[in-house]
Amino acid sequence: MQYRRLLLRIASQYPCREDLVDSLYQFIGYSDEILPEAIYISGPPCCGKTVITSALLRYLKHLRYAVVDCLECYSSKVLFEDIIDSLSYHEPTYENSFAPLAKCDTMKSFLAELRKGFAQDTVVIVLKNAEKLRDMDANILPTFLRLRELSGMNVCCILIGQIPFEKFYPKTGLPSVHHIKVPQYTKEQIEMILLKDSHRMGQALKEKISADSQIPEEELQKRLEIISSFNLDFFRNYLSTFLHMFYRVCRNLIQLRMVADECFEKYCEPVFSDPSMSSNANMLWRNVSGTLKAALETLYTRLNASSIENSQNREMKDFIQIVELPFYAKYLLIAGYLASHNPAKEDKRLFLKNHGKQRKRLKSVNAKAKVAEKTMLLQGPATFSVDRLLAIFHAIIEQKVCLTCDLLAQISTLVELGFFTRTTTDRNILEGSARFVCGLQVSVIQRIGEMVGFHVNRYLCDLMQ
What we know:
CATH superfamily of the largest domain: P-loop containing nucleotide triphosphate hydrolases
Largest sheet: 5 strands, parallel
GO molecular function: ATP binding; DNA replication origin binding
Low-confidence stretches: 302-309, 355-366
Strand order of the largest sheet: 2-3-4-1-5
Number of helices: 21
Main location: nucleus
Order of helices and strands: HHEHEHHEHHEEHHHHHHHHHHHEHHEEH
Domain ORC5 lid: 235-271
CATH architecture of the largest domain: 3-Layer(aba) Sandwich
Number of strands: 8
Pfam families: AAA_16, ORC5_C, ORC5_lid
Oligomer: single chain
Distance between the termini: 66 Å
Keywords: ATP-binding, DNA replication, Nucleotide-binding, Nucleus
CATH class of the largest domain: Alpha Beta
Radius of gyration: 27 Å
């Protein structure tokens, strides 16, 4: 009965993750049972791994727990001391000179402090971004996986990461762990979560409008009343339109929520002028489509709303950065954009000289021109592999270029600059399964094409006539 109430309480806060709560509860939820030595929770970013684990631990009163982010721990010493401080509810402040509760320079001293302070407790240690443990001393990860054995305590270590556990294995091997895989949210689940958050979306829009001093008081009150009258169907229509465009290129719930908030005001503009327009989905779609397109193009560059409204400044900022790139990097950038905006099945026709003739009819050309803008708007940039990127690069550059370390390093540079965004969790970007996306605007790529003497429009399927 207690478990059922707990499950319903957490599910009301974090829907669509009942399986994760159930699996974790079976391992650590019973106070009269010994904890497993280690649990590894893997899944893509922003799928609820950490927040749901922390929520469950807060409700389990028989546990003493610590949640530490390995990304913030630049050394094993900092990691050990953060765990002890968190278990002891000690917070470094100005009054205590930001000193830790105990100094733990080695794993031996950490185990000693653990036994000294918490020998009689049931302890759970949660390590976020556990991939960073691979970069620490070789004994850190194996020790945390055998913490119960080495400390003689009832302690469990929960590792949370994004990569498969097989990529943790060193040459000497690792103890076995219980593995919980958390899947990505489906489109329907994301829509349900965002719809559950519709009240907050409406409140955020009210605050945004209230902060605008240019709106007259009478008009302001009118808009606030209209926002209060929005029902779930209105929010559902907006989210369905929004996710139809964005879900294909982004599954990050936090980022989707942020962009949905930014574009919601534009969606509501026709309703502010005429409240009866709230049921006219086609008119609302036409009004917001331009804003959604701009947001889609800047999704992976992580720019704010003001940069979406001022596209010229954004383009110039990207252009200034790209001008300083090496010659081959500019061609790699063009190749990445073509790979993101052309279907892979069209590569042979676009980039090979002897691809055979293709008959063009006036009817098909006009039809393609008519749907070109709609196709680019709805689909957005697609992902591509390194192999396809290099194949297009060698096809579009006029001179013969050998595949060297310098050329491969320039791909990493484009990723670091944010022009390419990695959409997979591969640690090495040159692995065969690594995939990327290019989120730059076509106008920026066209300018780069002019600099190197390359006609971009001739190689874009949606712009060819």
